[in-house]
Amino acid sequence: MLERLTSEYESDATGPWSVDRLPESYIEKMLRGIVAFEMPVGRLEGKFKLNQKSSAADREGAIKGLRGSGDPESLEVARLMAEFNPAD
User: Fold this and answer.
1) Residues 56 and 40 both lie in one domain
2) Same structural domain for residues 59 and 20?
3) Each residue of 10-57: pLDDT tens digit?
4) Do residues 56 and 88 make contact, with C-beta atoms less than 8 angstroms apart?
5) What average pLDDT score do residues 64-88 get?
6) DSSP symbol at 20
């Protein structure tokens, strides 16, 4: 499951990584703290956060990473983050 999740959600990240790159001892230790479960969704409520409580440097790093992806949705989120979180 961990391999499937990282493949799905980390494959397009800058410098994509996989579980294969981690030491086996580290994976075994971390897996003890992961519990898989399924939960039916009765209601979904979204929040428009955009890192406003992060430092300016962290926000700029997130914006840079999003812009570097080239993905249209990521570019739009980067634009919104820059618009709604002016530099400190």
Assistant:
1) no
2) no
3) 776 666 667 777 888 988 898 888 888 889 999 999 887 787 788 889
4) yes
5) 86
6) G
Angstrom distance (rounded) from CA 29 to CA 32: 6
Residue found by looking up tokens 């969704």 in the block: 41
Radius of gyration for the alpha carbons in the chain, expressed in angstroms and rounded? 17
pLDDT in the model for residue 61: 92
Q: Which domain holds residue 75?
A: 48-88
> Do 88 and 55 contact (CB within 8 A), yes or no?
yes
CA 79 to chain centre: 17
Residues 6+ away with beta carbon under 8 Å from 30: none
User: Could you give the dihedral angle defined by the CA atoms of residues 73, 74, 78 and 84, in that order, rounded to the nearest 10 degrees?
Assistant: 50
